[in-house]
Amino acid sequence: MDLNVLRTFVAVCEYSGFSAAGEKLGYTQSTVSSQIKQLEKELGATLFDRFYHRIVLTQEGSRVLRYARDVLSAQEKLMNDLHHAENVSGELHLSMSSSVCARYFDDDFIDFQRRFPEVRLTITEADTERMFSMLRKNEADLVFTLDTHIYDPEFEICAEQEEQVHFVASAFNPLTAAESLRLCDIVHEPFVLTEKGMSYRRILDERLAARSAAITPLIEVGNPTQLCSLAAKSEMLAFLPDFITRSFVESGRLRYLPVTDCEVSVWTQLLIHKNKWRSPALQALIDFYRERLTSA
């Protein structure tokens, strides 16, 4: 039985709702709902009665809650015992996008290494399809995706965070003076974009294709910080998540363009295969980045 699903069930009971539990755990309401349905199917029991947007534990749900708390308490004691019995150590392999790597593996990683100096990490940058292939083949212990929201019973969502994506231009670009813009106003402008097929670039291309349009960038670069720098120093536009461009916008080097007909959001998700054994080192990494992701 998936302990994370039990943890979600207990949170729903304690916070009296799917939305409140999701907010506490860093999940969407739909993810919480899917996990509860998964647990009910596995147990062959209805855990909640649903009345006019309210939920009430069934008799079976109350029994499951008592056992779930006991199981989670035992798991916590076990992990604490393991963590204090010896230093947390081991080798871990993570796979993630370039944008996520740029965001979470700088100061955050240094902080993690200070806490767990005996944990060694190997990081592979990949697209979403390859990440999940690596998880299935046990070639990666954990993945950080930046893509449309993903839910698959084969994988467990450890944490997730919605991210907004915008067009940006240098502060001296005349387009920044416009009160509003449409995609058709900018598709023929010079662009610098991440590689074709990569998460938010793929979503942008799909939106353009639906309008029988396309953007042909002058430059394609995988490093998102380099994309920001190139856009800030030229007349080229870029299309990037706000967490990448925020420091450039705050310093005045870039500005958001008011494109009104292309609202895009993606999700940063930390996922693990449901059958993956969580070593103390892996659990330490999950706990660390769950805290970072939900507080972002």
Q: Give start-end ranges of low-pLDDT stretches.
A: none
The run of helices and strands is HHHEEHEHHEHEEHEHEHEHEEH
Strand content: 15-25%
Q: How many β strands by DSSP?
A: 11
* Mean pLDDT across residues: 88
Counting DSSP H or I runs of 4 or more residues, the number of helices is 12
Question: Which geometry do the CA atoms define?
Answer: globular
Largest sheet: 7 strands, mixed
Distance between the amino and carboxyl termini:
30 Å
Q: Tell me the helix content.
A: 40-55%
Q: Whole-number radius of gyration?
A: 22 Å
The helix-and-strand class reads: alpha/beta
Structure summarized in a few sentences:
With 296 residues, this protein is α/β, with parallel strands linked by helices. The protein is built from 12 helices and 11 strands.
Explain what you see.
With 296 residues, the chain is an alpha/beta fold. Helix content is 46%, strand content 23%. The protein is built from twelve helices and eleven strands. It has helices at 3-15, 18-25, 29-43, 59-85, 98-104, 107-115, 128-136, 183-186, 199-209, 224-232, 242-250, 280-294, and strands spanning 48-51, 54-57, 89-96, 118-125, 142-147, 155-170, 192-193, 219-220, 238-241, 254-256, 264-273. Strands 3, 4, 5, 6, 9, 10 and 11 form a seven-stranded mixed beta sheet that branches. A two-stranded antiparallel ribbon has the order 1-2. A two-stranded parallel ribbon has the order 7-8. The longest helix is centred in the N-terminal third of the chain and has 27 residues, at 59-85. It is globular, with a radius of gyration of 22 Å. The mean pLDDT is 88.
